[in-house]
Amino acid sequence: MGAPASTNIRGADYPQILADHRVIFKTKAPDAQKVQIDLGKKYDMVKDAEGYWNVTTDSIGEGFHYYSLIIDGVAVADPASQTFYGMGRMASGIEIPFMGDRYYALSNVPHGDIRIKNYYSTVTNSWRQMYIYTPPGYDENQGEKYPVLYILHGGGEDETGWAKQGKANLILDNLIADKKAKPMLIVMPDANIGGGGFNSGGIENGMKMFEKEMKQAIIPFVEKNYRVKTDAASRALAGLSMGGLHTLYTGINNTDMFSYLGVFSSGWILPMMDKTANAQYAFLKENADKINTNLKAFWISEGGPEDIAYKNGQIMLGKLDELKIKHTYYQYPGGHTWPVWRNDLYNFAPLLFK
């Protein structure tokens, strides 16, 4: 027998995680003809005499993974699991125990807060929402101002991603307690903006609108309502996947506003984004000295060759070398998944605001 996953709803016995990180799934669907678990790989479930469908998976990597039940061809959330906004919908998620140094564990250290704030955007002319992490002692240290990391989710996710799937608050709590990272605010906005769909025109429109949203709405709201430092050396911008594209576009175009950039599992999508990529490379070439002077860290990471962004990322890295743009590359195996991005934040945050 395994242990119920920590991501199960209260009282649910399944899914269960075995010691070797295989997972037992069990769900009741007596009238279904075919049931599968989609955990990146699809597993066919077997029906027993009582109408329960069962399967034991291969060993699953540590950390958080989205999954779905597929019942007669329809992907649905598992009623036994907590749900998370990912893949453009509410999906089930499972947390596989991490056997390493527990850098995103809930530990006996001082804890910061996650604050959910609504703000009115004059860019979209609508109410929007952001999550904000304030470090331990923020409310008590009234005379202190803090630097800010603005961090962005990926495609199909929203402002809840880094707070829930990413465990950003626990990662920073532990880093700050170990004196490995400076106390900072982390602002997690909704980067879904502009519409237009997943094509070159839609993505480019979204990037342009998000740049405006950052400059005209998000940063002004944070700097008006929180005790934060307002110079470029006290601002960082990072993002995963689609958020990494936003970081490239907004960050490179505004190195007078951000001194630190983190690009996780991303890179210009070729050939779909040739025009956008070439325009940025031309900008980088013309402004190389300024960008190299302004950026204290330009940190790029991929989740190994199995990361769907890996090839495009490697092409971009080669172009940055050609243009003599200073940058650092880091690789952590695990593909295009949250365990990789948690590790990215763990390694990126200590570089900031030194």
Characterise the protein shown here.
The chain is 27% helix and 29% strand. It is α+β, with helices and mostly antiparallel strands and 354 residues long. The chain has an eight-stranded mixed beta sheet with strand order 12-13-15-14-16-17-18-19, sandwiched between helices. Strands 4, 5, 8, 9, 10 and 11 form a six-stranded antiparallel beta sheet that branches. Helix 3 (200-225) crosses helix 4. The protein is globular.
Q: How many domains?
A: 2
CATH architecture of the largest domain: 3-Layer(aba) Sandwich
Major pleated sheet: 8 strands, mixed
Strand order of the largest sheet: 12-13-15-14-16-17-18-19
Which assembly state applies to the chains in this document? single chain
Distance between the termini: 48 Å
CATH fold-type name of the largest domain: Rossmann fold
Element order: H for helix, E for strand: EEEEEEEEEEEEEEHHEHEHEHHEHEH
Task: Report the β-strand fraction as a percent range.
Answer: 25-35%
The rough form would be described as: globular
Q: Classify the secondary structure makeup into a structural class.
A: alpha+beta
CATH class assignment of the largest domain: Alpha Beta
Spans of at least 5 consecutive residues with low confidence: none
Number of extended strands: 19
Task: Classify the helix fraction into a percent range.
Answer: 25-40%
CATH superfamily of the largest domain: Alpha/Beta hydrolase fold, catalytic domain
What is the CA-atom radius of gyration, in angstroms? 21 Å
Number of helices in the DSSP assignment: 8
